[in-house]
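From: lab user (bench 3)
To: helpdesk
Subject: output format question, protein + tryptophan

Hello, I'm new to running complex predictions and I'm not sure whether the block I got back is the full result or only part of it. Here's what I submitted:
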Amino acid sequence: MRVLTGIQPSGDLHIGNYFGSIKAMIESQNDHEVFAFIANYHAMTSLSDGVRLSQLTMQAATDFLALGMDPQKSTFWVQSDVKEVLELYWILSNFTPMGLLERAHSYKDKVAKGIASNHSLFSYPVLMAADILLFGSEVIPVGKDQIQHVEIARDIAIKFNNQYGDVFTIPEFRVDENVATVPGIDGQKMSKSYGNTIAIFGDEKTIQKTIKKIVTEAVPMEEPKEYEGCNVYNIAKLFLDEEGQRELQERYKRGGEGHGHFKLYLHDVMWEYFRPYRERRVYYEAHQHEVREILHLGASKASEAVQPLIERIRMATGVKY
Ligand code: ADP
Ligand code: TRP
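Helpdesk reply: Thanks, we reran it on our side. This is the complete output you should expect:
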C-alpha cells in the first residue's frame, strides 16, 4: 500500500511529534511503500524569512534521516524539488469550488488568530490535494487537524474524475486512535505553540532543565505516590516496555523517593532511548552534503514516479497539445 506523509519544516521536533507520528511512519517503512516529503512550499504560508526556511528544511531532513527515515526503502524528498506538484495545483484549482475552501477550519482558525489572509493561506488545501493525488496515495496518516484537508483532496479528485474518467486514486485519511496525546511539561498537550515541549535533539543540560520543570503534585518524599495522572510517569512510560512500566509503578507505590528522583530517571531513559538517533544525527550534521545528495536522489525517484500520471493529466485536460 502506498502511504504518503508531508512534514512541515517548522523547527525543533519534540517527543510529542515522535510518539504521535514519526515513530509510526518510520516503522511503516517495513511493510508499506512510504512517500515522505518536506512540505517547504506549505511552510511559506507561515514563514517569510528565506534563510530560515532553507535552514529549517535541512534541519528537518537531518532529523528525519537520524530518526530512521531510510532512503533505500522509501522515497524522501523536498516538496519544491518536484515541480509537477505546482502544475497539478493549478489544474486542480479548476475543480475546487470557492465554498469548499471557505469551509476549511484550518484557514478560518488561522485568520481568527490574526494571520493575514492571503491567497496561499486560502489555497493551501489545493496544494495539499496536489501532493496527495500526484502520487496516487491510498492512505494519508494524519493528526485530527488535517482530516478535513484530506477530505478536500477527495472532493477535488472526485470532481476531476467525473469530468475526465478514473484518473485519480481516491485517498483515505488514517488517524491512529491508539496513539495517545503526549502531555507537555505542564500536563497540557505537548505542542510548540504552548511552549511546553521536550526536544528530541536538545542538548543534555537543556533537557535536564526542562524535565525539572515538569509539573508534579507536592507529596512528602517518604509517602507513596500516584503514578496515574503523574506527568513524569506519563512521559516516562513512552520509553519503557511493560516490565519497565511495572517497575516504575512499584517505585511510585513504595514511597521513599520524590518526584525529583523520577525526573532523573526520566532523563536517563530518554537520553538512552535517543542515543543511537543522536549519534546518527551528529553524523548527518557533519555530512550535510550527504543529506543534500539523499534529497536529490529522493527527488529524482519521486519525479520519476509521477511522470505517467502527470502525462495522463496533461493529455486529459488538453494542456498537452
Ligand atoms: P505542534 O503541536 O508542536 O505544532 P505539529 O502540529 O507540527 O506539532 O504536529 C506534527 C505531528 O506530530 C502531527 O502528526 C501531530 O499529530 C503530532 N503531534 C504533535 N504534538 C503531539 C502530542 N502532544 N501528542 C501526540 N502527537 C502529537
Ligand atoms: N498540511 C500538513 C501539516 O501541516 C503537511 C502536508 C502538506 C501534508 N502536504 C501534505 C500532509 C500531504 C499529508 C499529505 O501537517
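A quick orientation on your result: The first strand starts at residue 2 and ends at 7. Let us know if anything else is unclear.
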